[in-house]
Amino acid sequence: MCGGVLGMSVAERERSHLVRQVVAHLLGQREAAERLGIGVRQFKRLVHAWRREGDAGLVSRQRGRPAHNRLTAERRSRIATLLRERYADFGPTLAAEKLLAREGIRVSRETIRQMQVGLGLWKPKARHARRVFQLRDRRPRFGELIQIDGSPHDWFEGRAPRCTLIVFIDDATGRLTALRFVPVESTRAYLETLREQVLEHGRPLAFYSDRHGIFRVNAKDAQGGDGKTEFGRVAERLGITPIHALTPQAKGRVERANQTLQDRLVKELRLEGISSMAAANRFLPSFMAWWNERFAVAARDAASAHRPWTGTPAALDDALARREERVLSKALTFSAAGVKYCVRTSGPGTALRGAKVTLYHFVGGGMAVHYKDRVLAVTAYGSYAVPEPAEDEKTIDARVEAIVAAQRSGPDLPEPGAVLAAVKDAARRCAVARQAAGHP
C-alpha cells in the first residue's frame, strides 16, 4: 500500500505525499486540501482511495482511455478534406471559425493546428529577435485618437487589379470605424473615408498617421503656402488635430490591423466570391460589424469623445472640398485643371471683373465657384494641356497597371508608335484622375 506507482504525474505525486503526511498525523486535512486547491471533502475521498488501493488510487481513471469528445474517423476525414480543398491557406484560428460558421463543425483551434501540421498545411512561424518598443497605453475614450493608414495589397488574389484599403481604427477600443477600397492611396481616398467616419460616428479629436505627403509637408525648403496639406486643411476645418508618427511601430495598432486584414479579409472575399472593388465596398459594413464584435474591447471611459456632425451632408461636402482661388478676367473667365470656364451672368457683370473667387472641388466630383456669399454659375468652353505629374510609391502601381492595360488592349503585335500613343493616353487619364483626387 505504501509502494509508488510508475507513471504518476507530478500533481499525483504531490497528492500522494500530502496524503501520507495526513495519514501519519503530520499535517491536517484542511491545510493539505488548501495546498492542493481542493475542498476538504474531496481530500477525504483521496485519503479513502489511498487507504484502499495505495498510490494507484490517486491515479486518474481516465488515463489511457480514449477521450469522450474525440473525433470519429469519418468526421476527421471530412475535416481533413475541407482543410485541403477549401481552407488550405487558413490559419488554425480562422479555419476553426469558418468550419463552425460555414460547415457547422465545432472543433478546437489546437485540433485544427495539429491536423494542419500532419497534412503539411501549417508551419509555425520562426521567432526572430525583435527590437523592443515601449508599449503605450490605449487612450481612455472612444474617438480621442483614430489611427489611419492605407494598405496596398492584392486583395482579390488576381481576380481584380491590386488596390488599396483605407483603414480607420480607434485607439481606445481597437474598433474599425471606417474601411474603403480605393484604386490608390490618395488625398481623395482619405477624404471619402473621412466623410463616412464623420457621418457615422462624428468628428474625432485627433488623427494619427504616418509622415507621407498626403498628411504632412515634408519639403525642407518650401518657401510658400501655409505649411499644410489639403488633408491637413480639411482636418483643421473640422477641428481634428493631426498627429504624425515617427516610426511604423509607433502606430502599431493600425499596422497590426493591416496584417490581420490582409489575412482574414482576403479569405472572406474569396469565400464570398467577390471580385471587384464595388462589391467589396458593399461587403465591408458587415465585415466591420463582425470584426468589432470579435476584436474590439471596451474603452476605460464609457463616454465617447466624438463630436457629432450637426450640419447637413452638403455642409460637410463643403468642408471636405479642396479649395483654390482664381481671379476672373475682364471677360469673366478662369482656368482650372486643364479646363477653361466662363461665368454666366444675367447682366453685364462688370462688378465681377477682376474679382477673386474660390473654387470648391468636391470629393465626389464636381466643382462650385464661390464669390462672397453666393455660388456663381459657370460654363466650360475649352481645354488646355497639363503636364504629367510625378508619381510616388503610393501611386506607382496604379500608373503601371494603366500602362500595362493600355498595351494589352492593343493588337497582338502593335507598332511602336501605337504603343507610345496608348501609353501617353494612359498617362493623360492617370493625370486627370490624380488632379480630381486632389494631388498637385
CATH architecture of the largest domain: 2-Layer Sandwich
Rg: 33 Å
Query: Which sheet architecture does the biggest sheet show?
Result: 6 strands, antiparallel
Number of helices: 13
Q: Average the pLDDT over all residues and give the rounded result.
A: 85
Task: Using the coordinates shown, work out and report the CATH topology of the largest domain.
Answer: Nucleotidyltransferase, domain 5
Assigned CATH superfamily of the largest domain: Ribonuclease H-like superfamily/Ribonuclease H
CATH class of the largest domain: Alpha Beta
For the record, the count of structural domains works out to 5
The secondary-structure class comes to alpha+beta
Gap from first CA to last CA: 90 Å
Beta-strand segment tally: 11
Q: Choose one word for the global shape.
A: elongated
Helix percent band:
40-55%
Description of the molecule:
With about 450 residues, this protein is of the alpha+beta class. The protein is built from 13 helices and 11 strands. Helix 2 crosses helix 3, helix 5 packs across helix 6 and helix 12 runs antiparallel to helix 13. The longest helix has 22 residues. The mean pLDDT is about 85.
Structural features:
Nucleotidyltransferase, domain 5, elongated, single chain, 11 strands, 40% helix
Break the fold down into its secondary structure elements and pairings.
Elements: H1 10-23, H2 29-36, H3 40-53, H4 73-85, H5 92-103, H6 109-119, E1 145-153, E2 163-170, E3 176-182, H7 187-200, E4 206-209, H8 230-237, E5 241-244, H9 252-271, H10 277-295, H11 313-320, E6 322-327, E7 333-336, E8 339-344, E9 356-361, E10 367-371, E11 374-383, H12 396-408, H13 416-437
Parallel strand pairs: 1-4, 4-5
Antiparallel strand pairs: 1-2, 2-3, 6-9, 7-8, 8-11, 9-10, 10-11
